[in-house]
Structure prediction request, 172 residues.
Amino acid sequence: MNGLLQMEQGSPVPAEQTQAPSQQPASDQDKYDLVAGLMVKHVYEKADAIIDTLQRDQNLSQAMGVMLSNMMIFSLKMAEQNQQQVPPRMLFQATVETARAIGELLIDRQLVPEQQEAQVTEEAFYTALDLFGQRVTLTDEERQQYVEVMDEFQQLGSSEQPGQEVSHGPAQ
Prediction:
């Protein structure tokens, strides 16, 4: 599982590349850029508040997982308000990018040693997925789609070797 969050090495989407939430994205890439961009932008704009919140909790991975889960739910609600859908794989990939951004903050603020960041971030990611599944009302079909994507992410994470890079674009 150590390689899951290092699979897609990419820089966060700069704020100027994101669209306003009221605009309807034209493609899956646009949707992905919007969701991931807004989530990562939030991390950087609210870095101090995020760090303060995480520092208050004894279990850093758990606190980060709760935060990521909240961002996932918020992203789904925003998409629904704009009559858009965010496919499960796309939401998970945006969450991976967001978890990485928070992990970078933890290293920069010297709250987590660099060699422990991947473990903390990965635990937070899986906590977020678990909480998301508990807190969101999904149809049986939607739940099955999320389970399938979760299984794929777990298989990719467990089959990755440290240092190996796998690229995945925004998928449907």
The chain has one domain: 27-158. The radius of gyration is 15 Å.
